[in-house]
Amino acid sequence: MTEQTPPIDAPPQGERPSLSQALTGGEDRRLKVVAVHAHPDDETLATGVALAHHAARGDLVHVITATLGEEGEVIPQDLRHLEGDPALGPHRAGELHRAMAALGVEHDYLAAGSSRLSKPRWRDSGMAGSEAAAHPRAFAGAPIAVAADLLAERLGILLPDLVLTYDAQGGYGHPDHIQTHRVTVAAVASLPERLRPRLYAVLTPSSWAREDRAWLAEQVPAGTGLTVPTPDDPFPPSVVDDALVTHAVVDPAVVPDQVRALREHATQVSVRDDAAAPYFALSNDIAARLPGREGYAEVDPDTGDLIR
C-alpha cells in the first residue's frame, strides 16, 4: 500500500460528498466497509479506488466474492490453456488472494457457513445465453432468498457501516452482476434496522465517462493493439446522468495500489503504463482509464431504488 496518513478523504467532486463524509458527517471515525462482487477482479475494477482509499484511511475493509470466475476468458498466451479448464477457478482464487493483499483488505466467499468461507457455494454463470448458465450451481440461477440469507448471515458477523455493490443493471449487464445486486439488496433489507448498513451502488457520471474517453484518445499510443472508444460509442448501463450520482470517492493517490491489485489478476486484465497515467484492457482489447475516482448512489434496500 502507498504510505498515507489518515484521514485522506478527498474534497467532494462538485456537490458530491465522499462515502465516509456521508456516514460520519466529517468526524474522524473509522468505518467497516464491505464490497460484494460476482467474480475475482470485479472488486478491483469496479470498486478498487474505494477499497484502497478506505483501507489507507484505516477503515476495516472486506470483500465477499460469489464465484471463482470459472468462465473467464484468459488473456496471456502462456496461461491460455486455463481457459475452459477446471483449473481456472482455483488459479483465479490465487489471483484474488494476492490482489486483496495488494489493496490491504480482507476477503472471503459467499459460502454455506463460516467454516466454508474458502470455497464459494456457486459458480460463474458466464455471459447471458452461455451453456454455463444451465449449470446447476450457476450463481445467476441461485434462489435469491437462499443466497441473501447466507450474505445476511455474513453481514451480521462483520457488522459493516457501508456495503458496496453493482447497480441494478450489474454495471454492464452480466447475469452474475445483476444477481449480486439483487442478492445484496435482499440481504441488507433482511437485517434488523439497528444492524442495517448503508448500501451504495457503483455508477459513473456521464461527464466523467466522456472525459475518460477524451483522455484515452490523447494518451493511448498507436500500435498498442487496443481499441479506444469513440465519443459516439455506446456506454454501459452504469454510465448515467450526472444528477443520479450523489457520492464520489476521488483519490488519485491510491491508483498505484489499484494497479498492483489489477496486475495480480493477470488472466483477466492487461495493465498498460505507457502514457501519462496507467490504463487497462480486458479480453475485448478495449482501452479503459484508471482515473482514481468512482461514483456512487445510495440504494434503498426495501425498494431497490436509488435514493435521490
Automatic annotation (TrEMBL):
Domain of life: Bacteria
Keywords per UniProt: Zinc
InterPro entries: GlcNAc_PI_deacetylase-related, LmbE-like_dom_sf
Keyword Transcription on entry: no
Gene3D superfamilies documented for this protein: LmbE-like
Ranges for region Disordered: 1-20
Pfam family for this entry, one: PIG-L
Matching PANTHER family: 1D-MYO-INOSITOL 2-ACETAMIDO-2-DEOXY-ALPHA-D-GLUCOPYRANOSIDE DEACETYLASE, N-ACETYLGLUCOSAMINYL-PHOSPHATIDYLINOSITOL DE-N-ACETYLASE-RELATED
Protein name per Swiss-Prot or TrEMBL: PIG-L family deacetylase
